[in-house]
Each structure stands twice: as C-alpha cells, then as structure tokens.
Design goal:
The chain contains 19 helices and no strands. By secondary structure, it is mainly α. GO terms for molecular function: transmembrane transporter activity.
C-alpha cells in the first residue's frame, strides 16, 4: 500500500550530507573519551586490568545490541528516525555514566551509550550511501569516518584540557552535545529515496534525489533502476537471503572487513594509548597531549581519503593500509622489547603509532564503512549492515577487553601484543587481495544486478520467479 509523507524541505546538499554524517561524531567521541577517563577512574576505584577492560568494552557490548536492533528499526522507522533514536539512547546513557558512583554504574551507562552507537554506526553509512550519487558515494562514505575521527579528536582534546583537574565526569558529559545536535539536526533531513520508494512514496523519493544528486541528474533513470531492484527483491525476499549463494560472497566480504578493521589493533591504540605510553615512561599529561597529535593525524588522513577513494578505488587503499600498519606494529614491538631509555622509547613509540594510524585511516578506517554499505542488495542491506556491525562491535569488545590482559608485563607485554597485531595485518593483506572486490564508480543497483548476473539469476523484475 502506498505511503505518502509531506514533501521534503528544500535542503542544500552540504546540509544534507553534513547532518547525515553527524552520527559519526557521537560514535567517535564515545570511543575516544574513555582513553582520558581510564587513568583517573583506575586510580579512584583501584581497578584491575580486567576492570579497565570491562569498562572500555562495555560500549562495544551495547553496540552489538544496537546493531542487532538496527535491521528492524531501519525497516520499520526508516534510516533517518533510527539515527535520531540512536542519539536519544546515547543521551540517556551519557547521563547515567556522568553521575556514576562506581565502576559498575559507569559500565552500565557506557553499555547504554553503546546501544545508541550501534544503532547509529549500522545506519549512518547506509543513509549516506543511499543518498549519494555513484560518483560521490566513496567520498561521502568517507565523510562518515571524518566525523568519527573528528569525534575522537574532540575527545582527546577534552581529555587533555581536563587532564590537570582530573574531572572525568565532565569528559563523559561532553557526549551529550553531539547527541543533542544529532537529534535536532536529523529532524530537518529527509528519508532516503530508496526507503521512500520502497514504501510507495515516489513523489518524495524524486524530490530527495533531486536534492542529493542535483537538478541535472537523470531522475527518471535513477528511479527506474531503484524500482527495478525493489521489484526483484520484493519477489524473492525471504528471511534467509543473506545466506543465499549469490549474496553469501558479499556477506563473507563484509564480515571480513568488519572483523579485520578491529583485529588490526586500532581500538587497542585508541582506548589505551595513554595507559600504554605511561607504562613506557611518559608522564600522564604528556601521554594525554600525545593523543591530540594522534587525533590530528587521524583527521588529516581521513580527510585525504575523501579526495582519493573514488579515484584510487577501495581495494588499493585497503592493501596500502595493511602494509603501513604491519610495518609500524612490527617496529613498535621491536622498540618496546629492545629500547631501554624511557625518553627514546616513548618518542619512537609515539612516531610509530602516528604512522600506524595514518595507514589505518587511509585504508581500513573509512573504506570498511563505505564498502559494508555498498555490497549488500537493497532488500538485505539493513540486515547485512546489522550483521556486519554486530561482528565489528563484537571484535571491538574482544580487543578492548583482552588487550589490558595480554599486554600486561607478566604475559605478552606491550611488545608481544604489537607483534600479534602485526601478524594479523599480514594475514588481512592476503585475504583482502584474494576476496575483496572493487566497487568504485558503480551505483548500488549496478552492484546488485552484477551480483545476480554472476550467479545466473534474472536481472529484470518481470523475469523473476520463485
């Protein structure tokens, strides 16, 4: 049955994409701020390595729940309202965490925040990819990662600014700002044309396409292509479609990208860089200041990706990122295990971490979210993004919970942990080389129709049969 809505407001493309990607700031701030909070709450509550790991991983645990819920909320509420719901949930969690009087309450508050982060991280890439024309989709997907690293940078700056006072509650309360801006900002944005057309509102879908693709776009062709894919999916759509032979390869690719992003070691660095650098001999404020340098590095290289992702392609950037990360992690392991002078060791580790993060943001930071939102068919995209996000957040939880344990001096130590992550990046390089396809320059509908053609399935709605 056709569903009609009020015509979308006349919104410029800058506003459309800016607020569409704003969920990344919330995501990044909540990931990054724990690095500044941990040194203070660890001392306050005498936390063990396991205790710090649980507090850090609680956001990831909540994000798994949010990612699971996202497929249903995307289908029922749409992309836009799901992102608003994410902001509201994160706001509640922020309030709980800010007033926490114990490690248990702080953990619960961050778990609730994680639900909002999971809803947002599963939906924002889909929202942007469904708004963007094919020629800009990589850049606009990278915009999401720019906002994530901007949130991390703001968190690192906040941690450093409040480091002398040790006011970790204000650090946590800062997450309320992006949550509120997200809720308000999304209220002026439209739903995606694909979701609108899927729900029978062609007039609004056409208006949104005109806003997001420009007045010179061939709107009739775009709508016809979207309509064709919707018709095919509606005739063949079943609960187990993600495991169908023609979809399964893309499910494997998305899961590889999601797991690989976290197993590369990035959130061990993001969450524990002050603790790690302090253990290697830096003072607390110096370690927090180094976070500002790390945040700036992440921001600059993610911004660069916006300009090269649709020229160089997705796969080459992933491979280059793996090489840089593996070399830097190997070097970090050698420095941690062989250099004894604390000043030299701390400086070398900081340089290697900076180059490592440059490699990560150049490849596995932005590209993973772009590709996960590209590879699934329309009908399966919410479920596919949900599954991918569950895997990503589960791996984030594993890495952030386990890193304090394995990096302890009596176990692998910091050096041994770096060697492990270096080895994982070597494995990821070869898996990416063999398995990951290139999606540069193709519309979402072309990607889906190519998948069907390779599997020998019909590529027009009228030919599809059960």
């Amino acid at each position: 049955m056709a569903q009609t809505t009020a015509p979308p407001r006349n919104i410029g493309r800058f506003t459309l994409y800016f607020f569409g990607a704003l969920g990344g700031v919330l995501f990044g701030y909540d990931l990054g701020i724990v690095a500044g909070v941990l040194p203070f709450v660890t001392e306050l509550w005498h936390l063990s390595s396991w205790g710090t790991g649980v507090i850090t991983a609680s956001v990831s645990a909540g994000a798994v729940v949010g990612a699971i819920l996202s497929a249903r909320t995307n289908k029922a509420l749409g992309r836009r309202r799901t992102i608003q719901l994410a902001g509201a949930v994160a706001l509640v969690g922020t309030a709980i965490a800010t007033v926490a009087g114990s490690a248990g309450v702080l953990t619960f508050g961050r778990f609730v925040i994680g639900i909002g982060v999971g809803l947002s991280s599963s939906t924002v890439p889909t929202y942007l990819s469904e708004l963007a024309p094919a020629r800009l989709r990589g850049a606009l997907g990278a915009l999401n990662q720019i906002f994530i690293v901007l949130g991390i940078l703001v968190a690192f700056l906040t941690s450093y600014a409040l480091g002398k006072s040790g006011d970790w509650r204000i650090m946590l309360a800062g997450a309320a700002v992006p949550a509120i801006v997200l809720i308000v900002g999304l209220s002026i944005l439209p739903e995606t044309p694909r979701w609108l057309l899927q729900h029978g509102d062609e007039a609004s879908a056409r208006a949104v396409l005109r806003q997001s693709h420009g007045s010179d776009a061939d709107l009739d062709h775009e709508l016809a292509t979207i309509r064709e894919v919707i018709a095919i999916d509606e005739q063949r759509g079943r609960p187990g479609d993600l495991w169908k032979p023609w979809v399964r390869p893309m499910l494997f690719v998305a899961v590889l990208l999601a797991a690989g992003q976290q197993l590369s070691g990035v959130n061990a660095i993001n969450a524990y860089y002050p603790t790690m650098l302090i253990a290697l001999g830096l003072a607390t404020q110096a370690a927090l200041l180094s976070g500002v340098l790390l945040g700036i590095t992440k921001f600059v290289f993610t911004a660069w990706v916006v300009f090269v992702v649709d020229k160089w392609g997705r796969k080459p950037l992933l491979l280059v990122g793996n090489v840089l990360m593996a070399v830097c992690l190997l070097g970090a392991g050698l420095v941690a295990t062989n250099v004894t002078d604390t000043g030299t060791r701390g400086l070398l580790m900081l340089v290697l971490i900076i180059v490592y993060l440059a490699g990560y943001e150049l490849g596995w930071g932005a590209i993973v979210w772009v590709m996960m939102s590209e590879v699934f068919p329309l009908k399966n995209r919410p479920a596919g993004m949900g599954v991918s996000s569950v895997v990503l957040w589960a791996m984030t939880g594993v890495v952030t919970a386990v890193f304090p344990l394995i990096s302890a001096p009596q176990r692998l130590g910091i050096g041994g942990s770096m060697f492990v992550f270096a080895g994982i990046n070597v494995v990821l390089f070869f898996l990416t080389w063999w398995l990951v396809p290139e999606t540069k320059g193709r519309s979402l509908e072309q990607i889906e129709l190519d998948l069907r053609a390779r599997a020998g399935l019909p590529t027009d709605a009228g030919a599809v049969t059960r």
